[in-house]
Amino acid sequence: MKKITLLLLIVCLLGFTSAALAQVRRQAPAPRRAVIKANVLSPFVLTASGFVEYAFTPQISGQFGAFTTGASYKDVDFEGYGFTPEVRYYLSDTKQAPNGFYVAGYGRILNYKLTVEKEENEEKKTYTATYAPVGAGVAAGNQFIFNSGISLDLFMGVGVNGGSLKVNSGTEEDFDLGFLNLVGSGVRFRPGITVGYSF
């Protein structure tokens, strides 16, 4: 009888322990794998830029960025948009993506419409062109995910963009090529500070 009582007691104790552990597991917070964020430097160049990042494994995440812009440089007005797909590899042994130091490779797809207004023979003329460079680059940075879910991402990248100006009206001389170099052609640095929320 004592053996049966002891056996029942052990079975009940194991069942209680198993249920308690399952409850703890259910209450443990799931790792934050997704981040929605905005680049806080973009408004300084009259641009709105946002990103969505998702961690597929503890070390690898994918990020997709998009921006829209509209500004002027000298006598050139431009508006446009672009996309930045990116793959990140997180190097930390103690943190999981998307948290910690990372290196990344990214692509750039850009599209701009340029407008120049000039006065010729007392007549105002409008010239237009399009510019759609593509490019790729590498970046490194550190993303901090705080307990509150707030994220802070500091990064610096360098890439190469290339494309040709397509003039719809006017000539290439009507459009400042220095402006095009600033916007999309040749070697380009890509600094960024984003703030967002992870979940």
UniProtKB/TrEMBL annotation:
This is DUF3575 domain-containing protein. Residues 1-22 form the signal peptide. The lineage of its organism: Bacteria, Pseudomonadati, Bacteroidota, Cytophagia, Cytophagales. Keywords: Signal. It comes from the Bacteria. Pfam families: DUF3575. It comes from Pontibacter oryzae. InterPro entries: DUF3575 (IPR021958).
